[in-house]
Amino acid sequence: MRFAVAISALAAAVVLLACSNDGGGTDLSASPSISSSADPAPSSPPASRPAQSDEFLIYREASGNLVARNVATDESYTYVVDFNNEVIVDAGCSADGSRMAFVRQPFSSRERQLDIHGEGAPAEPISLPSTTQAFAWSPDGARMAFVRYEGIEQAHTVVVMDVASGNEEELTSGPDFAGSPTFSPDGSRIAYYIQRISDGDTQVFTIPTGGGDPEQVSSGDLQWYDPNWSPDGSKLLVAGLRTEDFQLYEIDPESGETSQLTESDIFKRGAKYSPGGELIAYTGSIVLAQVAVRPSASLHSFGIFLLNADGSDERAFTADPRLNPGAAVDPYLDANFIGWCTRGPWLDDTWTPFTPTTAPPQQ
Question: Among candidates 6, 44, 358, which has minimal Cα distance to 185?
Fold first, then answer.
């Protein structure tokens, strides 16, 4: 029951911030082996990596506004959302930190809008179909990948858009759900997950950005969600579900070999490597004791968790008593992870110094 409550609550938050799904009629039968042995030797790291003092976590806090918080210094800013007129469906920075994009849903329109802030941003928002969900920037910032889902037809598409012209190219389409598109660091492939509506089976696929057929890279013995490429392109970070146990794993996209990173009892979704590759952040469940006459009860909220890229030192970024013993947790202060940004022109005057807010208890 606790697991069901946690999954339902996070699903609602993730829909708003576009951890969407899509699926195609692709063969799901491939089953690469799972190994608990050491990871394959990684490729050489990029020559230039951002310092942690320039890395910001972007998340949605309890009020629904966005927060940018520096992992090293706690320097924090907030982006206030005009909830009288719109919601923010998804947001994310280009790899160089020069631009941030928001997918907005104005209440006055059936269409969504792609609004880009920062260096060289278009003067006007770009109109997008209302079915647009999650997106990802290409490494060079010239393109974006979008996942779209048509609920009535229960069908998805994955498209790539040229940011300068707004022209789009469809890469693949099919039945079922798909979500969490992510470009490989060299820009040659996009990874995403597909969840079949018929039985819930969820697997990770990659597809060439130049066109071609989707290829399943995950095994069939777990349900796999939310792929994210490592900065060197050697691995995909994924959330794996076995029964009621969500853990983080790394998948070699070439061999399918899988290594488990975590063993904690925390519900995990949306994990992403930091820009420099040293850290991983994810949205996790916070389980709190709640006073009750009979029987004992618990309350679920969500927070941000960090761990080192090798799986060590898993810890709460926003307070949680399981990883931070004795921490005082406000059960109404939800935090849902969106992604990472490096310091840059996206951090303009639309972001103001952050003051934490607390959502009132529901009556």
Answer: 44
Tokens of 51: 């310092």
How many Å apart are CA 2 and CA 318, to the nearest integer? 21
Q: State the Rg of the chain over Cα.
A: 19
For tokens 């949205």, what's the residue?
283
**DSSP H or E run through 12:** helix 2-16
Q: What tokens were used for 342?
A: 């490096």
Q: How far apart are CA 160 and CA 182, in angstroms?
A: 11
Enter the pTM of the model: 0.82
Q: Tell me which residue of 253, 282, 132 sits closest to 186, measured CA to CA.
A: 253
In sequence order, the 6+-apart residues with CB closer than 8 A to the CB of 73 are: 53
Q: Which of 278, 281, 276, 267 is nearest to 339 (CA)?
A: 281
Maximum Cα–Cα distance for the chain, whole Å? 62
**Of 359, 335, 322, which Cα lies nearest the Cα of 76?**
335
* Antiparallel, parallel or unpaired: β 155-162 and 236-242: unpaired
3-state secondary structure of 247: strand
| Cβ contact 103:90 at 8 Å | yes
Does the N-terminal peptide bond of residue 360 adopt cis geometry, omega within 30 degrees of 0?
no
Tokens standing for 84? 């009288």
At 271, give phi and psi (nearest 5°).
-70, 145
Beta bridge partner(s), residue 299:
288
Beta strand 223-229 with 215-216 is unpaired
d(Cα 237, Cα 165) in Å, to the nearest integer? Answer: 32
297-308/132-137 β-pairing: unpaired
Pick from 165, 228, 175, 227: nearest CA to 197: 175
* Bridge partner list, 339: 58
For CA atoms 77, 107, 335, 341, the dihedral sign is negative
For residues 289 and 164, what is the distance between their CA atoms, to the nearest angstrom? 51
pLDDT at 219: 86
Which parts of the chain sit beneath pLDDT 50? 1-47, 292-294, 358-363
Give residue-wise pLDDT tens across range 202-236.
999 999 999 899 999 998 789 999 999 999 999 99
Q: Residue 220 has what DSSP assignment? A: S
